[in-house]
């Protein structure tokens, strides 16, 4: 019968501890003083560890055991209770149960720049605003200047408001985040924009491309943010040219700047009113007439730029349609990591975050003298020489057991846990005491009902990694391939201990 590798490890270490326990006759230990509020936390932690070691003293304790602090706080009266307990494993929840990764392409305000693809991680119960904030952090654009839309077959299928839950973003949705300005204008017109009333807000206009010989749009839709004030046809046309700068050949830009006898030498501008295409201005309107002619965009109808076949082939750069900068995604892939994937430190932060106990787990508050709702929090007080990290991939819900296959990005070297450990236990030269290097991984492939185990282990002197799969052992040419979504139990050794081993 197959055994869970973490449960087997627990069984082995517990058995070895009992066999190697230096304490042959275990004394009685009174734990009533452990919650003595007159003592400092440090004194209580030392007392709890001393009492633990009075009954448990083995090489397993020396190498594998650390200490946790758990705190209960009554929601009614604020009474708190603190305990210090030994720990042999760091069993971490996976943040993936609360987060999801979403792909989104950011379309810059500058039409000459190439859209850039990102993978961002947002709370699974979060909103589009959370997605915009995560994207803003990645690309350096303010979240309020981003408009998120799903695009399907060269049309904007839907715009997403900030309050929309990300749970309503489907897996196959192709998301684009358009960078917009408060008023879609250039530097020369800023003074004009200042004269607009404060009640004037930007109006977003969807812009589609279509050839006159076809009835369907092509390319990437554009989004304009324009002031609600009066806008001339010439101003609108210049906005459009700036937005599609990278799609225009150089001769098209020269033609547009030359001031020809018509205002739309490259394409016709149509308004999509329901299922009807309505031309904003006749073809024979001159520049002089257009400068004084206003266009009505108050209804917010999408605009369609209609290209003739000749002008499409002469002036439009078709290859730019699929030209997206995916360097941010490729860079993380080349490094063997997903920039949007939860990290091991994310798991640690999830572990030490405060949790509100359920109604069935009420705490008997010594001050209220009755069961009360309470919050519970774990802290890392001290860590052992060898740190065993258990990723809690198996989840239990009602009568069902499921496995989480989320990829966790964990470091092969320099896992720094100093900031998570009690500050009074860290200081001076001891800062290195909570920095770890990975030396082994237990992997589980399969589901909750069964599967297959493999292992990775590092030869410390040669720094070479090997894969162990049943009776087959093979060298791993790339150490970064140790990181997989099958990682289940991670084995870390403190750096100072590893150095001492290598120099002995």
Distinctive features:
504 residues, alpha+beta, eight-stranded mixed sheet, five-stranded mixed sheet, 26 strands, 22% helix, elongated
Overview of the molecule:
The chain has 504 residues and is an alpha+beta fold. The protein has helices at 5-20, 41-55, 59-64, 128-139, 190-194, 233-243, 250-257, 287-291, 309-315, 327-334, 344-352, 495-503, and strands at residues 66-74, 80-87, 90-92, 99-107, 116-123, 146-152, 155-160, 175-179, 203-211, 217-226, 268-273, 276-279, 303-307, 355-356, 363-365, 370-372, 374-382, 386-391, 394-397, 400-403, 415-416, 435-447, 450-459, 464-469, 472-476, 487-494. A hairpin with a 2-residue loop joins strand 19 (394-397) and strand 20.
Structure summary:
The protein has helices spanning 5-20, 41-55, 59-64, 128-139, 190-194, 233-243, 250-257, 287-291, 309-315, 327-334, 344-352, 495-503, and strands spanning 66-74, 80-87, 90-92, 99-107, 116-123, 146-152, 155-160, 175-179, 203-211, 217-226, 268-273, 276-279, 303-307, 355-356, 363-365, 370-372, 374-382, 386-391, 394-397, 400-403, 415-416, 435-447, 450-459, 464-469, 472-476, 487-494. Helix content is 22%, strand content 33%.
């Amino acid at each position: 019968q197959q055994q869970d590798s973490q449960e087997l490890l627990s069984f082995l270490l517990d058995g070895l501890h009992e066999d190697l326990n230096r304490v042959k006759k275990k004394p009685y230990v009174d734990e009533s003083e452990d919650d003595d509020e007159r003592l400092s936390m440090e004194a209580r932690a030392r007392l709890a560890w001393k009492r633990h070691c009075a009954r448990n003293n083995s090489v397993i304790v020396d190498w594998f055991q650390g200490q946790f602090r758990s705190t209960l706080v009554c929601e009614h009266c604020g009474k708190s209770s603190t305990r210090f307990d030994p720990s042999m494993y760091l069993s971490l929840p996976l943040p993936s149960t609360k987060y999801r990764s979403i792909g989104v392409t950011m379309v810059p305000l500058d039409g000459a720049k190439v859209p850039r693809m990102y993978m961002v991680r947002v709370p699974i119960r979060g909103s589009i605003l959370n997605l915009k904030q995560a994207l803003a952090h990645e690309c350096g654009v303010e979240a309020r200047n981003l408009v998120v839309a799903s695009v399907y077959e060269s049309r904007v299928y839907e715009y997403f408001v900030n309050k929309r839950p990300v749970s309503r973003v489907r897996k196959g949705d192709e998301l684009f985040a358009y960078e917009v300005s408060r008023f879609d204008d250039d530097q020369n017109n800023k003074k004009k924009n200042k004269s607009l009333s404060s009640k004037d807000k930007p109006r977003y206009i969807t812009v589609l491309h279509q050839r006159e010989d076809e009835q369907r749009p092509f390319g990437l839709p554009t989004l304009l943010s324009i002031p609600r004030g009066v806008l001339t046809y010439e101003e609108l046309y210049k906005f459009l040219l700036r937005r599609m700068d990278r799609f225009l050949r150089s001769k098209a830009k020269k033609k547009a700047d030359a001031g020809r006898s018509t205002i739309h030498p490259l394409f016709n501008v149509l308004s999509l009113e329901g299922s009807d295409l309505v031309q904003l201005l006749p073809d024979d309107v001159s520049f002089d007439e257009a400068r004084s002619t206003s266009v009505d965009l108050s209804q917010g109808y999408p605009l369609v730029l209609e290209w003739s076949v000749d002008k499409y082939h002469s002036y439009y750069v078709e290859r730019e349609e699929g030209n997206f900068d995916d360097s941010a995604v490729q860079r993380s892939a080349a490094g063997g990591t997903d920039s949007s994937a939860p990290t091991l430190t994310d798991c640690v932060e999830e572990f030490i975050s405060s949790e509100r106990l359920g109604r069935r787990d009420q705490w008997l508050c010594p001050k209220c003298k009755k069961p009360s709702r309470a919050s519970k929090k774990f802290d890392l007080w001290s860590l052992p020489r060898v740190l065993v990290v258990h990723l809690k991939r198996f989840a239990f819900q009602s009568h069902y057991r499921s496995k989480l296959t989320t990829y966790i990005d964990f470091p092969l070297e320099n896992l720094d846990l100093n900031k998570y450990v009690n500050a009074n236990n860290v200081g001076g030269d001891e800062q290195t005491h909570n920095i770890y290097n990975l030396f082994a991984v237990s992997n589980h492939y399969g589901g909750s009902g069964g599967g297959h185990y493999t292992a990775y282990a590092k030869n410390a002197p040669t720094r070479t990694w090997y894969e162990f799969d049943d009776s087959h052992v093979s060298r791993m040419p790339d150490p970064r391939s140790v990181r997989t979504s099958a990682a289940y139990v991670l084995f870390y050794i403190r750096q100072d201990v590893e150095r001492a081993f290598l120099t002995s």
